[in-house]
Specification:
The protein is α/β, with parallel strands linked by helices. The chain has six helices and nine strands. The chain has a single domain, classed as 3-Layer(aba) Sandwich (Rossmann fold), CATH 3.40.50.
Length: about 230
């Protein structure tokens, strides 16, 4: 008898999170977060100084905190996409009452390939960027981004915990730590800023900044890499 496929680590994480803290309506966050430590780094301004009525797409929205901030505090029209249906249900429970905000379950790449809409900004906070092959995802992002507009994303820093950045374009083994501290295997593309710049350029995107951030709770190494780029 064939073995059933292992559950997605992201589904398992969301399932445990919901079990330990059932979803309920939440107040809108006061700021947008890009890093592992609240209050560290920039906020929504990295996507543009005037986001009123702008169309913004989040790839890997999770429970919807950043999308809710952008829609309510910045007046943007935001779509949050997440692979895990449980996360979308959580996001709708948290913030479904808000206007200017839509949540959709689906694979980030498939959503980009299926939609006819063009966006004023696309972003990912430890979301699809780095988890989907960049040679496929970044061109799809460029196709859906308006000329001159911004892509911004954060990924776990390739030097976190004393690691070394990848020396080629292959993904590396990593793990997801669940709320109960179980570790489930996964793969991730872990590039330094220079290699991200190369992949962005191939997709028609121009690197505008690369910032390292440290969370002292996780040792002396940088923990987050924040990349911004513009469509040429």
């Amino acid at each position: 008898m064939p073995t059933a496929p292992a559950p997605s680590p992201w589904h398992a994480h969301a399932l445990q999170r919901t079990a330990t803290a059932p979803a309920e309506p939440l107040p809108v966050p006061a700021r947008m977060e890009w890093t592992t430590r609240p209050g560290l780094g920039p906020g929504a301004e990295i996507l543009g100084t005037d986001l009123g009525h702008r169309r913004i797409l989040e790839l890997g929205c999770g429970p919807g905190h950043n999308a809710a901030h952008l829609a309510t505090r910045r007046g943007a029209r935001v779509t949050g996409v997440d692979l895990v249906g449980i996360q979308i249900r959580r996001a709708r429970t948290h913030y479904g009452r808000l206007s200017g905000l839509t949540f959709a379950a689906g694979h980030a790449l498939h959503y980009l390939q299926a939609t006819n809409e063009h966006f004023d900004a696309i972003y990912s906070v430890f979301g699809a960027v780095g988890l989907v092959p960049p040679n496929l995802l970044l061109p799809a992002v460029a196709d859906r981004l308006k000329p001159g507009r911004t892509l911004a994303f954060t990924v776990p820093h390739p030097q976190r915990g004393g690691r070394r950045p990848a020396i080629d374009d292959r993904p590396r083994r990593d793990h997801v730590t669940l709320p109960d501290r179980t570790r489930l295997p996964m793969v991730r593309w872990e590039f330094d800023a220079q290699r991200w710049e190369q992949h962005l350029a191939r997709a028609g995107l121009w690197l505008t900044s690369a910032q390292d951030f440290h969370d002292p709770r996780h040792g002396p190494w940088p923990t987050t890499l924040l990349i911004t780029a513009r469509k040429l």
